[in-house]
TrEMBL record:
Keywords: Coiled coil. GO terms for molecular function: DNA binding. Gene3D superfamilies: Immunoglobulins, Winged helix-like DNA-binding domain superfamily/Winged helix DNA-binding domain, YVTN repeat-like/Quinoprotein amine dehydrogenase. Residues 777-808 form a coiled coil. InterPro entries: Ig-like_fold, Sig_transdc_resp-reg_C-effctor, WD40/YVTN_repeat-like_dom_sf, WH-like_DNA-bd_sf. One of its GO terms (biological process) is regulation of DNA-templated transcription. The keyword Coiled coil applies. This is Uncharacterized protein.
Length: 957
């Protein structure tokens, strides 16, 4: 380049620089001007997903970001070390000397290169799957290298370039060589197979082999900090410095875009990235990130004020789903560019909690707990402003015939632009509907009444009258095809169907539907096509007019599952369904199933969830701190992307001998010992813009697939030895991932041990068989001996039985004789008693007769009686029978006591028979006193103590 050309370029740069200073003074106006041409909803931004230092477990600063081409894991150069994110969990890999990792790069082989202070090298999985570090610093011989930070790493066809601000090292074929740039360098960039770098105070150079060639006309860049070099169009380059961007066509450098450069002049460009054929992302040091088209027009601007964790962008990376990752000075953020869903965040809470919204006359209105806010969609960068007079709680915003009606805590307003007019002072306008049977009438549910609105002479809606005969708080109402009005009364009071009078001034008839499933507080009423539908404790119910009752709605709407929380029909063409877990689905009412929309759950206004149709192409979701914008024509693309099957990440032994395996792709077959039956399996899906749910099944342990769960791990305990196959799938990809593993049996239950056990068992069986034969022989001998013994015993038993039988016969005879003896004795006693009674009676007769009867007759009778009393002959007979029964008791008594008289023996025999004193007296024909005297004498002769009973003594003798 000639001296004149160089001077011309310098002059152009100076003119541009001063123009940039002037432009910077009006940068806000310029940005507003360029945004005006964008869509009316351009103030809404993509979804932001935050990862704080507490989330990833490392330090704030993230200097580099890259995605692994094979695994799709993300890696970040963090001040604590190398961060790895697999979509489910974060890991930190620290360098041996704990240096800050300043740069990261991945080559085609999948090696992860990092650079730090006086250190660079690469990470590769070891045999357990964990990343292991291999340092290349020992290959560098220059001592000055120890004080150099490796700020940039670039994988090229010539090798891996490690670059500090003073040196460039190239790693190739296992060797590290030092390149000699012409001065202190900034950042080496590769564009269209060209290696370019800025050299301080000299300009832009291109590396060709070991040579550094100056790019002509770039000398003015020597005083700039060249941070990014990107392709522009088919042939041009886009050169970005801290303060400006230039386009280069191999001939000259020209400013890229005045408005964009004015922005960079104020906010200092730090990183640039081509994120699409006609789209760029630029990260700044002071004001977040901007996304532009190929002409430099700003399409998105996201900073800390509208959602980023921090406005200093240190690194950028685009993943395989075309989402943008930002490494910030404080945290990591993901901008979900892949989704058409956009968000308007009210991060500072300036607007309050959003309950409803509406679009009317190119204005967007938000109804919050603080009032009604609006902004013009023709000036999307303008802020929301409060509509004067609407301060307070807003419940409902409804557009009818291009007129905006506002249901407010203080009544009902009509809003025209930025002005509000009170139409009705009845408080609490919950819901407003046009009656299909009376198109010129609106009906409204409030805190206490139902109200009617009609148009006035100017064609504007005005309050007409309340409806008599009804008083209740109505948050939801719908008109049925027959013209009756369905109202959802105060919580826990059920539904009510009202029939209004012809003039709509009173309630003519009313039916209450308050079954157990219709009186819970979370019941919701809506009209889908021509059906009155409610969500209830039993799932979806629809009103059956023929049966006058509610029946299950699934017969018409199969998607109406039991977990449905609320249904939002949109113009009878679409239906949005909110489920209990906060997930949102949409589709046409007659579809078999609905499609899930990947929106953030748990950000709804509890019990006041609202989805609003803004126009024919956009639907908005009211949230606690802003709203979500859904483009109807692009919802089927929401979350679309090449989602891979889930990855089984690790399998670890929970107790016993420790063992852990980490995988980065298909898992090989594994085996564990019998003591390692408690396993924890973790898994992930390297897809970052949608929540992932998993289902799994372990062959040989569980019978069925598990329910869908967001958990990224599963623990199995007490697995018995055997062969197992773990199946895993996600809700984003039906393909299965499989992990095969075995729990080995203990050493004493292997194949060889089982064979040994069989041999031992065979030998044992043979020995047992022989032992059995011996035992059988011994048993036969014992049986024979036992039989012989039994025969002997039987003979002896027979003899004993004969003897016993004879004894029994003798005992029976003895008993018989005893009975005969007792009977004979009792006969003698009775005879003697009778004779004594006769003698006594005869004596009394004689005494009464005196001398009338002859004395001889009486004497003869007495003699006869005395002769028939017990005689000696009776005693002998008694004695003989007595000895037979009592085994010669008297003989033994005489042998032992020879001094006993005949009378003593008689007394002893009678005592032996246990006769009483009176009975003995009758036998001996003496008085009882005489018997007692005989007993006394006998006791003396027998020498018996006084405390011994004489009768018992004789019975036991």
């Amino acid at each position: 380049m000639s001296w004149i050309s160089m001077e011309r370029n310098r002059l152009s740069y100076l003119l541009y620089f001063f123009r940039g200073l002037l432009t910077a003074l009006g940068v806000g106006f310029l940005l507003a001007g360029q945004s005006a041409a964008q869509s009316g909803y351009s103030f809404c931004q993509p979804e932001l997903i935050h990862f704080t230092r507490q989330t990833y477990g490392a330090y704030n600063q993230n200097w580099g970001a890259v995605q692994h081409r094979q695994t799709r894991f993300l890696y970040f150069a963090n001040s604590k070390g190398l961060l790895e994110f697999d979509g489910s969990s974060w890991r930190v890999y620290e360098l041996p000397k704990k240096q800050k990792v300043r740069s990261v790069c991945i080559d085609e082989k999948g090696r992860i290169f990092t650079g730090a202070l006086g250190e660079f090298g690469y990470w590769e999985p070891d045999k357990t799957g964990e990343l292991a570090y291999h340092s290349l610093a020992p290959l560098v011989k220059d001592r000055a290298f120890q004080g150099e930070e490796i700020w940039n790493i670039l994988a090229t066809s010539q090798g891996i370039l490690f670059q500090s601000f003073a040196f460039i090292y190239r790693f190739h074929a296992g060797r590290v060589e030092l390149l000699h740039p012409p001065g202190n360098v900034l950042f080496v960039r590769q564009v269209r197979n060209r290696l370019l770098l800025g050299v301080i105070d000299k300009g832009l150079y291109e590396i060709q082999g070991d040579r550094f060639l100056l790019v002509k006309g770039s000398e003015f860049l020597g005083s700039e900090t060249v941070n990014t070099i990107l392709p522009l169009g088919e042939t041009e380059l886009l050169i970005g410095t801290e303060r400006a961007l230039y386009r280069y066509d191999d001939r000259e450098f020209r400013p890229f875009n005045d408005q964009l450069n004015a922005f960079m002049l104020l906010n200092r460009l730090n990183r640039g990235l081509l994120i699409g054929p006609d789209q760029y992302a630029f990260g700044t040091l002071l004001n977040g990130v901007i996304i532009t088209d190929a002409s430099g027009t700003i399409r998105e601007h996201i900073n800390q004020k509208n959602g980023l964790q921090n406005s200093t962008v240190l690194a950028m990376c685009q993943d395989a789903e075309h989402n943008l990752w930002l490494g910030l000075d404080k945290g990591i953020d993901l901008i979900n560019l892949n989704s058409p869903i956009r968000y308007f965040p009210d991060n500072d809470g300036d607007l309050g909690t959003l309950y409803d919204m509406a679009r009317c006359n190119n204005n967007l209105y938000l109804g919050t707990n603080q009032g009604v806010y609006y902004k013009s969609l023709l000036s999307p960068d303008s802020p929301f402003r409060l509509v004067s007079g609407t301060q307070g709680q807003v419940w409902d915003l409804t557009v009818v015939d291009n007129q905006l009606m506002c249901g407010h805590n203080r009544g009902t307003f009509r809003i025209d632009g930025d002005r509000a007019t009170l139409l009705c002072p009845i408080t609490g306008g919950w819901v407003l509907r046009r009656l299909k049977h009376h198109p010129d009438v609106l009906i409204q549910g409030t805190y206490t009444r139902l109200c009617i609105y009609r148009k006035d002479a100017r064609g504007q809606w005005a309050f007409s009258h309340p409806i008599d005969g009804f008083s209740a708080s109505v948050r939801q109402l719908e008109e049925s095809p027959d013209g009756s009005i369905w109202v959802n009364r105060a919580p826990n009071q059920g539904l009510q169907r009202l029939t209004l009078s012809a003039d709509l001034r009173s309630v003519k008839a009313s039916n209450v539907y308050a079954g157990p499933e219709l009186i819970r507080s979370t019941i919701n009423l809506c009209r889908i096509q021509e059906q009155i539908v409610v969500t209830s404790a039993k799932g979806g119910l629809r009103y059956d007019s023929a049966a006058d009752r509610f029946v299950p709605a699934q017969s018409i709407y199969p998607w109406f599952v039991s977990t449905t929380r609320k249904v939002f029909p949109i113009d009878s063409a679409y239906v949005f369904v909110l489920r209990q877990d906060g997930s949102l689905y949409w589709g046409k009412p007659n579809q078999q199933s609905l499609v899930e929309i990947p929106v953030k759950p748990n950000q709804w206004v509890e019990e006041y969830e609202s989805i609003v149709s803004l126009d024919e192409n956009h639907v908005a979701l009211c949230r606690e701190n802003g709203f979500t914008l859904l483009p109807i024509d692009k919802l089927n693309q929401a979350g679309a992307g090449s989602v891979r099957p889930p990855i089984i990440r690790t399998i670890a032994v929970l107790d016993g001998p420790e063992s852990s395996h980490t995988f980065r792709g298909p898992a090989p077959a594994l085996s564990f010992s019998h003591k390692q039956g408690n396993l924890l399996i973790t898994f992930c899906t390297p897809y970052y813009s949608r929540p992932v749910k998993y289902s799994y099944w372990l062959e040989n342990s569980t019978q069925h697939w598990s329910p869908w769960t967001a958990s990224q791990q599963k623990e199995f305990t007490n697995l018995s030895p055997g062969h197992y196959v773990f199946h895993l799938k996600s809700n984003l990809n039906s393909s299965e991932s499989v992990l095969v593993f075995d729990i080995n049996p203990p050493w004493y239950w292997t194949t060889w041990s089982k064979l040994l056990y069989v041999l031992i068992a065979g030998a044992l069986l043979k020995w047992i068989y022989e032992l059995h034969l011996r035992r059988v022989a011994m048993h036969q001998n014992r049986v024979r001996e036992k039989l012989e013994e039994q025969l002997r015993h039987q003979e002896e038993q027979s003899q004993r039985e004969i003897i016993l039988l004879q004894k029994e016969q003798l005992e029976q005879g003895l008993i018989q004789k005893s009975e005969e003896l007792a009977n004979s004795t009792m006969s003698l006693i009775q005879k003697n008693e009778l004779l004594i009674k006769l003698k006594d009676e005869l004596g009394r007769i004689r005494a009464r007769a005196g001398t009338k009867l002859p004395a001889d007759d009486f004497q003869r009778i007495n003699t006869l009686i005395d002769a028939n009393m017990s005689s000696e002959q009776d005693w002998k007979l008694f004695q003989a029978n007595f000895n037979k029964v009592h085994e010669q008791f008297l003989k033994h008594l005489i042998d032992n006591y020879p001094d006993l008289s005949q009378g003593d023996l008689k007394l002893a025999a009678y005592l032996r028979m246990n006769l009483s004193t009176k009975e003995i007296a009758h036998l001996l024909n003496i008085t009882p006193r005489s018997v007692e005297l005989k007993r006394y004498r006998l006791r003396k002769k027998l020498d018996i103590e006084g405390d011994i009973n004489l009768s018992e003594f004789m019975m036991k003798y």
